[in-house]
Write a structure and sequence with these properties.
Length: about 180
Amino acid sequence: MVKDFKNLYGGVIKVAKQTVIEQKAQLVNEVADKMKSTPAFIAFQYQGLTVEQFQNLRRSLLKDGCHISVIKNNISRRASEQLGYSEFADVLKGAIAIVFSGEDIVAPAKGLFEFAKDNDKVVIEKGVVDGEIYDYAKLQTLATLPSRDTLLTQLAAGMLGTLTQLSIGLNMVAEKQEQAA
């Protein structure tokens, strides 16, 4: 079966239906691979945002190593179901975008909730973090956690404080032994 598609210049391109099906299957696999390789991704509604607001959201998330993709819901739904995220696939209706994290799994939730404070048009739906489905409440809790860099800094400061106290203690013991000798 041959299907007609209009090209950019108004002409008609004849494409075999099998080719279209293969292209869609390839897109589903690409989205599934993207979901599989990303530690966290979150679906949110963006209907009502201006282009400028959406671009601002995109830029702010990009600074945190995240990126937003607007993918056809049918493609996203099939990819989600292929990975066993059928509960996540249920929210893929209407004007939905997906934000994918970089290395920091907290960043997409934190960025979306921060943007949503000032903009009620952004409605956070569900997410997947380390293979587990997160609802709104879990995502909100995740957004309140410090970022990975902050946690590493806190850990290093805690360790440094302990090492400092240890070195002071050892120094005092050494001084006492010198005085006793």
